[in-house]
Design a protein that fits this description.
Ferritin; single chain; 2 domains
C-alpha cells in the first residue's frame, strides 16, 4: 500500500471519528434521559480520543478547526427531531446502527497492509473499544424493545396505507370523472383498511403471545396487542389520507395521480428509512424496493383503469 493511500485512509478515519464525536456531542445536548446522556457522553469522549490518534498520524495538532460537513450537521439535527417524535428507543437504535457501521470499517482496516506494527496494534485496540460500544448500545436497545415494537407498528401501518391506497386512487382516477368520487372512495377504503389492519395486528400479536407462552411457559408482557393494533390502524389511515389528499383538495385524473405519487414517494421514503434502521437493512435498498412496489402497483392499476375507460367506455361520476 502506497504512502499516499495510507494517508488517505488515515484522513478518512479521522473525519469519521470526528463526525461520530460531534454526532454524540450534539445528541447529548438534546438528550433528557440521564442514563442515555451519560452513555452518549462517554462514547463522545472515546471517539474524540480515536480522532486524536488519527490526527497525530497525520501531524495535525489542532482538530478543532476541521469543519463539520453539512451532511453531518443535518444528521445531528435529524437525530434531535427523531428523539422528540419517535422517542429514546429509536435514537438508541440509530446510535447502535452507527456504531455497527464504524466497527465494520475498522475490522476491514485491520486486514489492510501498509501500517506499522504499533499502529496496527492500536487499531486492534480501537476495534475492541468499538465492539464494547456496540454491546452497550445493544443493551440499551433491548431495554426499550417494547417501545421499538410500537414504532414498528407505526411505520409498517403507514407503509401499508400509502402503498395500498395509492394503488386504489390511481386506478379509480382513470375512470372517475371528478375528484370527489376518488377522494370519497379513497377515504372509505382507508377506513376499511384501518379496521382490517388493526384487527390483523391485534390477532397476530395475541397469537404470538399464545405461541410463546406454550413454548416457554412464559408470556411476553412487553407489548400490548391492543396498543399495537391502535398504532397500526391509526397510521394506516394517515397513510391513506396522504395518498388521497390531492383528490380531497380537488385534483383529478392525471394531475391527481402525479401529485399523489409525489406525496407518497416522499413520505414512503422517510417511512422506509425508519423500517431499514429498525430491521438493520440498507436504507437506500429499502427505499428503492418500497418505491418500486408502490409505484409499480399504482402504474398497473392506472393502466387497468385506462383500459376500462378507453376500451369499454366505462366512466364513474358522482
Amino acid at each position: 500500500m502506497q504512502s499516499s493511500r495510507v494517508k488517505k485512509i488515515e484522513r478518512k478515519f479521522l473525519e469519521d471519528e470526528l463526525s461520530d464525536y460531534r454526532l454524540y456531542d450534539g445528541t447529548a445536548k438534546h438528550e433528557s434521559n440521564r442514563e442515555l446522556r451519560k452513555l452518549v457522553l462517554k462514547l463522545r469522549n472515546t471517539e474524540l480520543k480515536h480522532a486524536r490518534f488519527w490526527a497525530a498520524l497525520l501531524g495535525i495538532k489542532d482538530i478543532r478547526n476541521i469543519r463539520m460537513p453539512l451532511n453531518l450537521r443535518i444528521k445531528v439535527f435529524l437525530y434531535a427531531i427523531v428523539r422528540k417524535v419517535l422517542g429514546i428507543a429509536f435514537v438508541t437504535k440509530m446510535l447502535e446502527r452507527n456504531e455497527k457501521a464504524g466497527l465494520e470499517d475498522y475490522k476491514n482496516l485491520v486486514k489492510s497492509e501498509g501500517f506499522s506494527k504499533p499502529v496496527l496494534e492500536r487499531i486492534k485496540y480501537i476495534v475492541r473499544e468499538e465492539e464494547g460500544h456496540e454491546r452497550v448500545l445493544m443493551q440499551q436497545t433491548q431495554k426499550h424493545e417494547a417501545v421499538l415494537s410500537y414504532t414498528k407498528s407505526i411505520v409498517f401501518g403507514l407503509n401499508d396505507g400509502l402503498v395500498e391506497i395509492l394503488a386504489v386512487v390511481a386506478g379509480l382516477a382513470m375512470v372517475a370523472t371528478n375528484a370527489f368520487t376518488v377522494a370519497l372512495t379513497g377515504i372509505i377504503v382507508g377506513v376499511s383498511g384501518t379496521l382490517s389492519m388493526a384487527a390483523g395486528a391485534y390477532v397476530s400479536s395475541k397469537s404470538e403471545r399464545v405461541v410463546e407462552k406454550s413454548l416457554n411457559d412464559k408470556e411476553n408482557l412487553k407489548t400490548r396487542p391492543s396498543k399495537e393494533a391502535y398504532y397500526t390502524g391509526i397510521f394506516y389511515f394517515i397513510g391513506a389520507l396522504v395518498a388521497t389528499l390531492p383528490f380531497i383538495l380537488g385534483a383529478y385524473s392525471y394531475l391527481g395521480i402525479v401529485e399523489s405519487v409525489i406525496l407518497v414517494a416522499v413520505v414512503l421514503s422517510a417511512a422506509s428509512a425508519l423500517v431499514a434502521i429498525i430491521s438493520d437493512t440498507r436504507i437506500m435498498n429499502r427505499i428503492m424496493e418500497m418505491l418500486a412496489v408502490s409505484l409499480g402497483t399504482a402504474l398497473v392499476t392506472a393502466i387497468i383503469g385506462f383500459v376500462v375507460r378507453t376500451v369499454f367506455g366505462i366512466a364513474i361520476s358522482a
